[in-house]
């Protein structure tokens, strides 16, 4: 098992959002960076980041959504937004029948890679991924990506 970090962001001025889900060691990184072209709330973008992280499966998942998302998935807080209810009802707290899901807020500075990925996608208005389907990250972003991975794993 490994660790996946996730983040989501809403850009109200551009009426769009994004999410980022990295996994990996400093020299190898699996990631998803999604551009969400419609107006979206920050919590919707966070859910998108979490779902992207879960698609990489068998991982410990951490996100910085102020624990609201985490408490919703544990059933401690209600999911009120109608667009999120369908997602919440579809996604079990125990995805893919793989047993309990361990969710926590990341330690300070540990979510920088997810944050970086969630900012790159709307800048280019494209999805990026380390695997198909998805485009590779622009080469000038890679040094920042690997620097943030180094910091997260130090």
Short description:
This is RNase H type-1 domain-containing protein. The protein is of the alpha/beta class.
Describe the 3D structure:
It is a single chain. This protein has helices at 42-55, 68-73, 82-90, 112-124, 142-152; strands at 2-11, 16-25, 28-36, 59-63, 103-104, 128-129. The protein has a single domain, classed as Ribonuclease H-like superfamily/Ribonuclease H (Nucleotidyltransferase, domain 5). Helix content is 34%, strand content 25%. A six-stranded mixed sheet has the order 5-4-1-2-3-6. The longest helix is centred in the N-terminal third of the chain and has 14 residues, at 42-55. Residues 92-101 have low confidence and may be disordered. It is built from five helices and six strands; from the N terminus they run βββαβααβαβα. It is α/β, with parallel strands linked by helices. The radius of gyration is 15 Å and the shape is globular. This is RNase H type-1 domain-containing protein.
Ordered list of secondary-structure elements with their pairings:
Layout: E1 2-11, E2 16-25, E3 28-36, H1 42-55, E4 59-63, H2 68-73, H3 82-90, E5 103-104, H4 112-124, E6 128-129, H5 142-152
Parallel strand pairs: 1-4, 4-5
Antiparallel strand pairs: 1-2, 2-3, 3-6
Mean pLDDT reading: 72
How many β strands by DSSP?
A: 6
The biggest beta sheet reads: 6 strands, mixed
Q: Which topology does CATH recognise?
A: Nucleotidyltransferase, domain 5
What sequence of helices (H) and strands (E) makes up the elements? EEEHEHHEHEH
Q: Major sheet: order of its strands?
A: 5-4-1-2-3-6
SS field, number of helical segments: 5
Work out the radius of gyration.
Answer: 15 Å
- Return the CATH architecture: 2-Layer Sandwich
Approximate shape: globular
Task: Count up the domains.
Answer: 1
Task: Give the termini separation.
Answer: 19 Å
CATH class: Alpha Beta
The H-level CATH homologous superfamily, spelled out, is: Ribonuclease H-like superfamily/Ribonuclease H
Share of residues in helices:
25-40%
Low-confidence stretches: 92-101
Q: How much strand?
A: 15-25%
Helical/strand content category? alpha/beta
Protein name: RNase H type-1 domain-containing protein
């Amino acid at each position: 098992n490994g660790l996946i970090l996730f983040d989501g962001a809403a850009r109200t001025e551009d009426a769009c959002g994004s999410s980022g889900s990295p996994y990996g060691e400093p020299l190898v990184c699996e990631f998803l960076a999604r551009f969400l072209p419609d107006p979206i709330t920050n919590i919707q973008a966070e859910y998108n980041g979490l779902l992207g992280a879960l698609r990489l499966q068998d991982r410990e998942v951490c996100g910085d959504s102020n624990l609201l998302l985490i408490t919703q998935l544990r059933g401690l807080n209600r999911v009120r937004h109608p667009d999120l209810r369908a997602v919440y009802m579809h996604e079990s707290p125990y995805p893919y029948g793989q047993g309990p899901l361990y969710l926590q807020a990341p330690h300070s500075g540990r979510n920088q890679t997810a944050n970086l990925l969630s900012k790159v996608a709307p800048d280019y208005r494209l999805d990026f991924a380390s695997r198909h389907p998805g485009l590779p990250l622009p080469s000038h972003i890679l040094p920042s990506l690997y620097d943030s991975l180094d910091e997260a794993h130090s």
